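> example.struct
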């Protein structure tokens, strides 16, 4: 599953058993299921967790929002790749990235302040991933 979920990897609808049931490690996802209230729930692996925070260059998430509320995450990862356990042998963590630069022309997708260039490009940074099937 890939797309703009408008939720972070840690939000209830992404991690809960009644939601997408996505976990942050391959090891957990490889357990394949977890029984909650007598129902078996299949996991997704969510590699996007490792893309939060300070990076060597470019970005700290896919979407920036400085909320006027008491809690402000600032950088969010609303754009995600979720992988079922059966596909894990065909997926490497290094094959998913958040693009902050145009792959062809090298132009930055960020403004000078490091936020996505929403005026000229998009308010979300794109993600790129590969499955070797």
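> example.seq
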């Amino acid at each position: 599953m890939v797309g703009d979920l408008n939720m972070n990897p840690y939000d209830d609808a992404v991690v809960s058993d009644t939601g997408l049931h996505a976990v942050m490690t391959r090891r957990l996802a490889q357990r394949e299921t977890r029984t909650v209230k007598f129902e078996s729930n299949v996991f997704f692996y969510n590699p996007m967790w490792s893309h939060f925070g300070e990076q060597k260059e470019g970005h700290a998430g896919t979407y920036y929002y400085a909320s006027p509320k008491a809690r402000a995450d600032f950088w969010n990862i609303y754009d995600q790749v979720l992988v079922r356990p059966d596909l894990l042998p065909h997926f490497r963590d290094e094959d998913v990235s958040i693009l902050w630069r145009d792959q062809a022309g090298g132009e930055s997708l960020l403004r000078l302040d490091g936020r996505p260039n929403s005026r000229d490009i998009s308010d979300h940074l794109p993600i790129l991933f590969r499955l070797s099937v």
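> remarks
The longest strand covers residues 33-36.
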